[in-house]
Amino acid sequence: MNSPSTTSSPAIRVRGLEKAYGDVKVLTGVTFNVPRGRVAALLGSNGAGKTTLVRILATLLPADAGTAEVNGFDVRSGARHVRESISLTGQFAAVDGLLTGRENLTMIAKLLRVENPASSTDRLLNRLGLTEVADRRAATYSGGTRRRLDIAMSLIGNPAVLFLDEPTTGLDPQRRLEVWKVIDDLAKAGTTVLLTTQDLGEAETLADRVYILHEGRIVTEGTVEELKRLLPPPKVEYVERQPTLEDVFFAIVGTASNGE
């Protein structure tokens, strides 16, 4: 396999990307960079083109114009190398409920011809906090645990870039926090994560950098603090803060997880 670009180059580089379905223009000149080892949040309303953009970056869909590189490889001319560098996880956990967590991971490792599948499986079970439930059928897992297993499966082969399409869809607040921690840990370990989400709180919590896709273009980007400075300075007001429903939920059930 060819060597990727140096660590100083962006993990994702996009220039003037365009895509239309018939007369409907979805992407009209998308340009942005994602630094390595960061969590990048791609925000946009329904139909903004987030999924189309991710599918192009994952080599699943050709662009009409423009260029894109992932891990230093062009998505068109170097598609095979891009696919070796990435993993893609959709909105719904793609695990086999009839298999145990361990069996799911081992199956993917063998399909990808990973050296020593058993060792790779054990390492990911430990990394994602799944060791205690590894030998239970995945159908018995909670939504949060299934999602962690799904992410573990996507990490087989140590991809440099991970695409996560709304990874906490349908999860309760407690399981959502579990997945958030996994994503944060991945970035700290050097994995670049491109996250699509409609949960603004999720983006604010996780993202090192936020990209807003609107009418086919990235209309603004920056850190959360940089984006907040685009608005007028806040007024200082003294109000009585009432507890939120989330405050009540966690006060009652706590944040501990039993992995079920």
Unreliable stretches (pLDDT < 50, length at least 5) are: none
Taken as a percent bin, the fraction of beta residues is: 15-25%
* SSE class: alpha/beta
CATH architecture: 3-Layer(aba) Sandwich
Determine the N-to-C terminus distance: 40 Å
Tell me the count of domains: 1
Helical residues, percent: 25-40%
Largest sheet: 6 strands, mixed
- Tally of helical segments: 9
Which value, in Å, is the CA radius of gyration?
A: 19 Å
**Under CATH, the topology is which?**
Rossmann fold
Please give the CATH class. Answer: Alpha Beta
Q: How many extended strands? A: 10
CATH H-level homologous superfamily name = P-loop containing nucleotide triphosphate hydrolases
Mean pLDDT: 86
Order of adjacent strands in the largest pleated sheet: 6-7-8-3-9-10
Order of helices and strands: EEEHEEHEHHHEHEHEEHH
Query: What coarse outline follows from CA principal-axis ratios?
Result: globular
